[in-house]
Structure formats: C-alpha cells, structure tokens
From TrEMBL:
This is Resolvase. It holds the Pfam family DUF4402. Keywords: Signal. The lineage of its organism: Bacteria, Pseudomonadati, Pseudomonadota, Alphaproteobacteria, Sphingomonadales. It comes from the Bacteria.
Length: 168
C-alpha cells in the first residue's frame, strides 16, 4: 500500500544584519562597514522549495532536491506521482560588490495533518565559497535539501526555512 505525500517548504527571510561600525579594527574596514550600513540588505524569496508529490511505501525513503541542477532524487520505497519539484530561489540586494554570508538552518521541522512531523536536513545552496553581491548590488542563489520520509507517512507537509544574510 502506498500513501500520498505532498511537500512545500517556504523560505522565510530573517532579519539581514550589517557589521557593527564600532567593531571595525581599522579605518578601512570602518569605511566599508559605513557604506554597507547605509545600504541595508534586502532578501526576497522568488521561488519556494517544493519537493513535489510522491507515494511512500512500507519501507519509507528520501527525497532530495539538488540546488545546482534542480534534479530530484528519490531513494528507498518512494514513487514519483508526477508533477515537478522546485529548488528555492532567493535574491539578495545590498551594497554593490559586498561580500555576504548566507546562513540556512541545519534542520527544518515540517508539519502535516494529524500532528505528524517530518524533517528536512542537508539544506545547501549553489553559492561559491565567498559570495559577493554583483556590481548592481544583487545576488541570486538557489537552495535544496533532503527529506527523510517515515514508512506509510502520508499528508501535506509544510514548513518555513529562515534565510539569514549578513555582510562580511
């Protein structure tokens, strides 16, 4: 017997922060911090992470959405029910050329009907090691993750992913 599972994860921008002006060790960094403080970061969620529709059998399984390729991989006793999955897409705006740090949580709890819960782990982005805002003050990135599904656990699961972006 297979049960239907539908998942949607909503990225939720959290407060973007800038460096403390009083914490700058030298005047050069203080100038950069001042420029960045004058241009606050803005985070816009363009696309929500959606792992799609699947059926889960008695052995349970996993769904993984790759942030680079956008491909969805199913593992274990999970069957694709059609439709498509989406990587999450976030746009950050701020000081042109500024280096930023993007922070995603290690784990997200999803809630379904009848008090059921599921967990997404392994949230990852397609960002380079030291991301910077472009000359236009804009940076767009995609993110994905991995969902472990318990045996015969059906429902429509939803959750929020806090996305934090800080000037470096």
């Amino acid at each position: 017997m297979r049960l239907f599972l539908c998942l949607a994860l909503f990225a939720l921008p959290s407060a973007a922060t800038a460096q403390c002006l009083l914490c700058a060790p030298d005047a050069t960094k203080g100038t950069a911090s001042t420029r960045q403080a004058e241009t606050p970061l803005r985070i816009d969620v363009e696309t929500q992470l959606d792992m799609g529709r699947v059926a889960v059998g008695a052995m349970g399984g996993t769904i993984e959405v790759d942030p680079v390729s956008g491909a969805r991989r199913l593992g274990g006793d999970v069957v694709d029910l059609g439709g498509f999955s989406l990587t999450g897409t976030v746009t950050v705006r701020g000081a042109p050329g500024a280096e930023v740090r993007v922070i995603l949580p290690a784990t997200i709890e999803l809630e379904g009907g009848n008090g059921r819960r599921a967990r997404v782990t392994g949230l990852a982005t397609d960002l380079a090691a030291a991301p910077r805002l472009g000359p236009d003050g804009r940076l767009q990135f995609r993110f994905g993750g991995r969902l472990q599904i318990a045996a015969l656990d059906d429902g429509d699961y939803r959750g929020r992913i806090p996305v934090t972006v800080e000037y470096q």
